[in-house]
Amino acid sequence: MGKMMSDLLIDVHSHPLLPVWIKAFADATGQNVDSVRLAGVPLPRWSEQAQIDMMDRIGIAASVFSLPGAVTAITGKAAARFARILNEEIANIMARHPGRFGAFAVVPLDDIDLAIEETRYALDVLHLDGVGAATHQTGHYLGEPHFDDWFAELDRREATLFVHPVPPPGYVHRPGAPDPSILEFMFDTSRMLLNMVLSGAKARHQRMKVISTHAGGTIPYLVSRIGILEPHYGAGGDRPTQSAEQLRDAFGSFYFDLAGSPWPATLDAIRHLVPPEQLLLGFDYPMMPAETAVTAIDSFRAYRGFDAGARAAIEAGNAARLLPGLAARMART
Q1: What is the value of pTM for the model shown?
Q2: Which of 90, 100, 110, 231 has the smallest count of CB within 10 Å of its CB?
């Protein structure tokens, strides 16, 4: 790579809209493959060369792919087969562009045994950098007992889990309603984080490193309110209550990317929850156009709440530490 990590940008939040996935999505939703819409919005065009060109133009050294939710509408062995196809195609893209891409694997979370099998294949054979998941699997939020064996596997490996929001269970997009990414994604991230904390799942799997997207949704804003109300109203069911300090520490154990979030008010909130070492950059390409990445970088670098060392860590160093395989590939090129 020829540069120090302090001179680089690593983007941990990028979605490769693979033709094989677009066709499957179009078929499942009864759409024309050439004009697919997602929640009423046209799906943007993507190609690996277009992404490379965008990265070179903006100065992004490496981007990390994820397709969370790509197989949530499929079940059983069909979901496992499709996850394998997606993971192998992503691994091929990584091989064609050494050091430019990393990836969080797609796993079929309706069947945890199959999820563990695909996790092992993706990490041990394809050498992907971690695994990805949606905030919930058909209404079952991460942190519920359904996921315990998979979490144990990730914890044993000290693996990195990237969690991306999807619309909440039962969501129906009304004509004329805003895209769910505007509000619903933030709320679903908050539900996932709260469930991971109140269930104790995060505390039981401390070696598993979890990246939550979009600066943690509403949690940095609500963490103090949760700390006041939860000890009084309870954690739900037979879950034990936690003190405000325990809750803040638990929420503070996550990593957070700043996709769509590097603005002063958001950064003020998130830096009161976690230190700079737990923050990462992400640009959500191509769901967000390239010019928004430029605006995000400018806003982040103009923010005065981080010193130069913290900014360098957030821009690349933290990602390199969390994803050592990617860092090694970058160093070899």
Answers
A1: 0.96
A2: 231
